[in-house]
From TrEMBL:
<dbReference type="GO" id="GO:0070062">
    <property type="term" value="C:extracellular exosome"/>
</dbReference>
<dbReference type="InterPro" id="IPR028106">
    <property type="entry name" value="DUF4578"/>
</dbReference>
<protein>
    <submittedName>
        <fullName>Uncharacterized protein C11orf52 homolog</fullName>
    </submittedName>
</protein>
<dbReference type="Pfam" id="PF15147">
    <property type="entry name" value="DUF4578"/>
</dbReference>
Amino acid sequence: MGNYVCCKGDLKFFGRKEKRGVSNRQSEIKRQELMHTYDTVADFPVYAKVNKNRKEDSVQYADIQVFSRAPQRTVEDVRRFQKAQETEYATISFPRANLNYDNFNGTLV
């Protein structure tokens, strides 16, 4: 009622506007055309050129193979290792001091 009284006009101006001649599908296609499309990125940059002159004769290749076995441990070795690494706990009990009150000095002795 406030709008009607304020503007003193017809309520048809406050209604929704209808789309004329454009369907939702066409507007969706236009939105997709306006959206930014991402470029595909090549594995190696196209502009990069490697022009390093190397002498292939000076390069030497070597095949290196390292064979080693993990040391096999017996059950006794494993237990001995675990005992050496285990945490040891200890309790320390301090004897309680006998506190005596010295009446002459007014202190604890």
